[in-house]
Every structure is written in C-alpha cells, then in structure tokens.
Design brief:
Distance between the termini: 75 Å
Strand content: 15-25%
Number of strands: 20
Number of domains: 3
Bound molecules: calcium ion, zinc ion
Oligomer: single chain
Radius of gyration: 27 Å
Largest sheet: 5 strands, mixed
CATH topology of the largest domain: Glycosyltransferase
CATH class of the largest domain: Mainly Alpha
Helix content: 25-40%
Length: about 675
C-alpha cells in the first residue's frame, strides 16, 4: 500500500515536471541590459512575463514561429522576446495556453554565480593536494596521487619522476598535456583580452586575497605540473595516467601505478604555447617563475623545430595494455604554428615571427572552431590580437576578414536553429556543448573587433542554450539553475556519497553519434541529434565533464558577467535637456579624439555645473576631461589616450558622459590601438 502511494506521488511528480518542461528559459537568469529570449514548443501565440512575488504582469508579447520542424530537435519552436523588460526581479513566463516556465531572475549579476562556480570547478579538479573545508566545503577531500609517477616502458626510461599536482582531466583522474594546453589557453585568453572582467581575487581558493587574480593562481597550479612533464631534451611527455580507467572511488582511494607515457610533438607544441602565454601574463607577479616558463618553452621549441615529422610517427597512440584517454592527433602543424605565435607574442623575436608568417596560411585562416586536436585558430587569434609593434598589417587584415566571415557563418546558424545554437544538426559530436561555447568565444571576438551587436547577441544565445534554453529544459551546468545534471560521469561527484554533484561543471551534452552503450540503449539514429543526451552516470559520451569544456564556459560566463552597457539610451532626446553632445571625432580613434558639446541658455551670465568624463564598459571612470562651471556656449575637449600610459586601456568600446546640472548624456566611442 505504502509503495502504491509512493508510486502515484512519483507519477504525479513526473507529470508536473513534464508540464513544466516546455517553456525553455536561461535558468541562471537574464542580464538586465542584454537581450532576453525564450523558446517554447507549445502551440501558443502570446506570452506574459509575471513577477513571482506579486503575480503582476510586467511584460506581454507575441510569440514568433521559428521552425515548424526544427531539424536538430524535431520540435515546432516558437520564440518570445522580452528584451525591453529591464526591471530587476524574479519572474516566470506564462503562455496564453497557461503553461509556465521555471522562475528566473532579471538582474545585473545573473552570470556571476555561473562564472564563479565554473572557475572554482578547476580547483575541485586539483590533484596532489588536500582540499580543505575552508575552500571546498562539503566537498573537502584528502590529497590524491602524491606518488605520481613512474616512467612507462614506452618512454624507454625507467624509474620515478616527481610529477605531482595539476588538474584531473575530466571524469577520470588522468592528466593529459594536450588537453591541459587548450584549457589553460582558453582561461588565459579570457584574462588577456578582458582583464577587467577576470581579475577577481575572491573565489575562495587557497590563493584568494594574495593580490593576484585567482584565474592566474588556478592556472599556475596546472602550469607547475606541466613543467614537470618536460624531458631533459626539451620535449614533453604526452600524458600521465594509469593503464586502465579508475573505478568510481574518491581520488585519494585510487591506488595502483600511474605512468608517464612517451613524448609527443603535439604535447610539446601545446606546452610551448601555454607556457609562453603564462610568462607574459604572470611576469609582473613572479618574474622568476615566469622566466622559468619562458625558458622551458624555448627549450621545447628548439627540440620541436628540429623534428622533421610528427613524434611519435603517426601521432601518439596508447601502447598495448593501456586504455585510458589517448588524445591522438596525426597533425602537429597547428600546434607548431600556435607555439610560434605565442613565443613571438611573448618575446617579439624575429625567428618566431618568421615561422608564423611563413606558415600561417598553409592550413587555412580562421575557418574552424578550436578544439584540443586543432589549435590553428588559437594561433591566429594570438597574432590577430597581437600587441607586438612589428606585426604584418596585411596578415592581420586577412585574419580579421576570416574571423568576420566565420563569425557570420556561426551567427547565421542561430537564425535557422530552434534554440539559436550555432552548430548544425549534423554536428552534435561528443562534447557538443564545448563546441557551442567555443563558437561563443569566436562570436565575442568578432564583436570585440566590430562592435556589431549581431555577434554579441549570437554569443549570448550560446550560453543561454547551455544554461537551459534547450530542448531538455536543462541547465547543462551542475549546481546552476533549477534542473541540472545530477549524475555526471565524474568520479568524485559519485564517490563522495553526497547527492548534489560538485557544482560548476558543464557536461558534454547531446551526442548524436551515440558513443557509449547507455546512449545506444536509449536512442538510435532516428533520434533528433540534439535529443541524444541523458543524465546517466555511465553515459560518458554525453554526461562527462572535462577541463577543456569548462574553460570556454568560464570565458563566456565571465565575459557576460563583466559586460556593461550604459543604461542611457543614446538616441533619447529629453525636452528638459538644454545641452547637446556631439559624436567624438575621429571615431574609432587611436591617440587623440575630440569631443564637442554645446550648452544653450538665454542668459550669458548663468553658470552650469559641468562634468565631462570617460568611462569603461564596467561603468568605471577612467579619465575626467572637464570638471567645473561653464556658461552657455560650444566647447571642445581633446581626449588623448597616449597620455594615459599608466592606465591599461584595452581596445574596444568606451563611453563619454557629459553631465550638466545633474543630467547626463552618454555616448559610445571606439578605441583601436
Ligand atoms: Ca589570488
Ligand atoms: Ca593538431
Ligand atoms: Zn589526483
């Protein structure tokens, strides 16, 4: 009897959850100043945005039919747009069919929790040291794998080499140089391009509060391990793992031999690239470690450049008897190109520049999304955004054009896919969520170069998809939103006996190629591609976590968390404002730009309180051009960026704001070095 009641409750719970499951929102919420979309597959025509606490309707609109048969999901999909609702609060969507969505926030900091947790996830992957309650809370655990590691016979060496530390790669406890490379690179790219968004020192990791951005501290933990993976000839060993994957035990309970496997040229290329990049971002914090990294990278380059072909021949393969991850790759030309680009950016030396410029167009410009196997796009991004004075402008122009062209392709896909996602229906490969996120990075870079909102909007749709605006009505990130994976293929999350998975991990996502037995059990080749996902412990091909998937999540979440758009409507003309602010000239500018404004008054004797200032995307004041009293008239101030040498002024959008007697007008300007 009891069982029966339980069963009927369960059935009704499932029913309720299904009835909730068809209005798809970003469960982390919507940022006040950004666009706000949701999707539904109900045949509704209109919607309302209802405040949770009052039940009041704050916005209503019509639904637009996006696709009557979305190829990725098989759904009929409609879209609702409530971008104009900018009032902070907690809301839900109600359709005219009375169906409702999960509740969500509109506020300026909806991405903050996602960003913090996604970056903190790397701390939870730390190998070789104890995670204390102070930082890890209930996920505290003992130190693991302190005996790393022994040379595998495939190295031709024997004995022990101390190689403790670094991050566990994924759901397993292995450590792989190739995948470490793209993960570190992505985190450092975020910091290098947008330091003002990624400088938090309060993530509550052991290094928080030390005056160094926590993202650099966390990366340093991996860098110090990477340094141990270099052989005496400069080359770099490919990976450090067991011969077989571990069972689902806590890392400190995982015993057995762990091995350092043979060197590879792909691992060496990755090593050079990220140590070079770390050098230039870390040298102001710890020049000794930074120089050690640069020297290690140069030694590795000297080895790599003298290899006539890929090492080992055909690329790395697991030796017989080993079945852990392989990260096999039979093309190391992209890794070499990337290594050269990073060494050039860090040193300015001619030989690295020559290598990049002789080879940059042999494998195509920016026409694919970066992944651990193909890092060519990362090489191009570094050169395109180079701050070295002697880059080839013609090459940069070609790279920029290719970035824009590729971003156009990605952005246009969002118009044909039901959820605004930038991958085609045939591209739901293993780790499709990371492809979506990496596409988002490229869209952000295109936006950075052009200020065209279509790229920003497309990038935002990519993270919306990850955070719940998808056919599963699921946030793919543990601990974020109302409904998220509870059984990720992640050994510590399973073995710790705690129901809640460790937060902040994005799972691989839909995989139409069904690369594990669980996917094959639940789906087949007729399943729409984006539906091939299951929250199941043993679906490693759709529900595992990995450092290279989390890194682009950190990038997007941190970017949108930091992103600031002035709330002032530039086109607005207010009757009460008796002054005018002209567009700066030149714009975009490099060096000097002129800002002209006019104050109207019938009286020449009247003085007005005037303040003219420059602010950045975060709304922070970076320069005051005038602060005082003026009478009616036309004035012109010159903003000279070259005089701001002590202030870090990245390329991009700034605002200038004129305040007259307490009333402001703000306008946008673009600074391009
Ligand atoms: Ca810190
Ligand atoms: Ca490659
Ligand atoms: Zn470990």
């Amino acid at each position: 009897m009891k069982l029966k009641i339980f069963f009927s409750i369960l059935v009704s719970l499932i029913f309720i959850s299904n009835s909730f499951s068809q209005v798809f929102v970003n469960q982390a919420g919507y940022k006040t100043s950004l666009q706000k979309y949701f999707y539904t597959n109900y045949p509704a025509t209109s919607f309302e945005v209802v405040e949770e606490i009052s039940g009041n309707v704050f916005y209503s609109g019509q639904l637009t039919l996006i696709s009557s048969n979305d190829p990725a999901t098989g759904m009929q999909i409609r879209k609702g747009d409530f971008s104009n609702l900018t009032r902070e609060g907690k809301y839900y969507i109600r359709l005219n069919t009375n169906d409702t969505s999960y509740h969500f926030n509109i506020s300026s900091n909806v991405f903050n929790d996602v960003f913090q947790k996604a970056l903190k996830a790397f701390y939870f992957q730390r190998c070789g040291s104890q995670l204390f309650y102070t930082h890890a809370g209930i996920y505290q655990r003992n130190a693991c794998h302190t005996g790393d590691a022994f040379y595998h016979s495939s190295t031709g060496q024997s004995g022990f080499k101390l190689s403790r530390g670094g991050w566990h790669d994924a759901g397993d406890y292995g450590k792989y140089v190739v995948n470490a490379g793209i993960s570190v690179a992505t985190l450092l790219l975020a910091y290098e391009l947008f330091p003002e968004y990624f400088s938090s020192d309060s993530l509550n990791i052991p290094e928080s509060g030390n005056g160094i951005p926590d993202i650099l501290d966390e990366v340093k933990y991996e860098i110090q391990w990477l340094l141990t993976m270099q052989a005496s000839d400069g080359s770099v060993y490919h990976k450090l793992t067991k011969e077989q994957f571990e069972s689902f035990v806590m890392p400190s309970q995982d015993s057995g031999m762990r091995y350092i496997y043979q060197k590879s040229s792909t691992a060496t290329g990755n090593f050079i690239a990220v140590l070079s990049r770390f050098y230039r971002l870390y040298k102001n914090y710890d020049s000794a470690l930074a120089n050690q990294c640069l020297n290690a990278a140069k030694n590795a380059w000297n080895w790599l450049i003298n290899q006539p072909s890929i090492v080992p021949p055909g690329g790395f393969h697991n030796p017989s008897g080993t079945q852990t991850g392989e990260y096999g790759d039979n093309n190391d030309s992209d890794e070499k190109l990337w290594a050269a680009a990073e060494l050039f950016e860090s040193t300015g030396e001619q030989s690295y520049k020559d290598y990049y410029e002789f080879n940059y167009n042999l494998g195509g410009l920016i026409n694919s999304t970066m992944n651990w196997q193909n890092v060519r796009t990362l090489a191009h991004i570094t050169y395109l955004f180079s701050k070295q004075p002697n880059t080839d402008q013609n090459v940069k122009t070609q790279l920029l054009n290719s970035l824009i062209s590729y971003a156009n392709t990605l952005a246009s896909r969002k118009n044909t896919n039901g959820f605004g996602v930038s991958i085609n229906p045939g591209e739901y490969y293993w780790g499709s969520n990371s492809q979506v996120l990496n596409n988002g990075i490229l869209l952000i870079l295109a936006y950075t170069k052009t200020n065209d909102n279509k790229y920003l909007s497309a990038a935002l749709e990519q993270i919306n998809y990850i955070l719940g605006s998808n056919a599963h009505n699921l946030s793919f990130v543990t601990g974020i939103g109302k409904k998220y994976p509870m059984k990720p293929h992640h050994r510590p999350s399973e073995a710790d006996g705690i129901l809640e998975p460790i937060p902040g991990f994005v799972v691989g996502g839909p995989n139409q190629f069904l690369n594990d037995p669980v996917l094959q059990q639940y789906f087949n080749q007729n399943t729409p591609p984006a539906l091939c996902y299951i929250d199941h412990l043993q679906s490693w091909a759709s529900n595992e976590v990995a450092i290279n998937w989390n890194a682009p999540l950190v990038f997007l979440a941190g970017y949108f968390n930091g992103f600031f758009i002035t709330s002032v409507n530039e086109k607005e003309t207010n009757q009460n404002i008796n002054f005018q602010l002209d567009q700066n000239y030149p714009n975009p500018f490099n060096g000097q730009t002129k800002i002209r404004y006019t104050i109207n008054s019938n009286s020449d004797n009247l003085l007005f309180r005037i303040k003219l200032k420059i602010i950045n995307l975060l709304g922070e004041e970076i320069f005051i051009l005038y602060d005082g009293y003026q009478s009616a008239g036309t004035y012109e101030e010159v903003f000279d960026s070259s005089k701001l040498s002590s202030v870090y002024l990245p390329n991009g959008i700034y605002f200038y704001q004129l305040n007259v007697n307490g009333v402001s007008i703000t306008k946008k300007m673009v600074y391009l070095k």
